[in-house]
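Batch job 17 of 40 flagged for manual review because the log was empty.
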Amino acid sequence: MYEVDVVHAQALFHECLDAQRAQISREGVLEGLLGLAALASAAGLAVESARLYAAAVANGRENSAILWPPEKIEYEHYIGLARAKLSDADFEAEQAKGRALSMEQATEYALNLPFGLPMPSPKGIEPAQELSGREREVVALIARGLSNGEIASE
């Protein structure tokens, strides 16, 4: 297994969510929510991950790309990590809370996940200097609203 750089990943997801919201890209925001849900799971935030995954899926029901096969594999892995840390009743309760969130509520919830780390401030982040060339390409494609499959094709 690999170690997750939570601080760096959190900063990138915040940047992407802000860009997607500015472009009014529902698909892009959903991708960001799924990414933060996976990060929460990887960071051991089972409750938050379960709730955020449910919110993302509930808000993306009409969008078949939300369950694109590679994303479904990732979803099943990370939701499985969250489920393993919670009782069945707690897991179902968090899923119900997540399904009740609007897209805006889910986004605010995601942006305020308690990773136990200082929240990145826009002035303090210089991602273009910290990212590799390929990472900058991927961030630009995400900002354009491309799905994981479309990014892979690029």
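Reviewer: the log was empty due to a logging misconfiguration, but the result itself is present. The chain has a mean pLDDT of 81. Unflagging and moving on to job 18.
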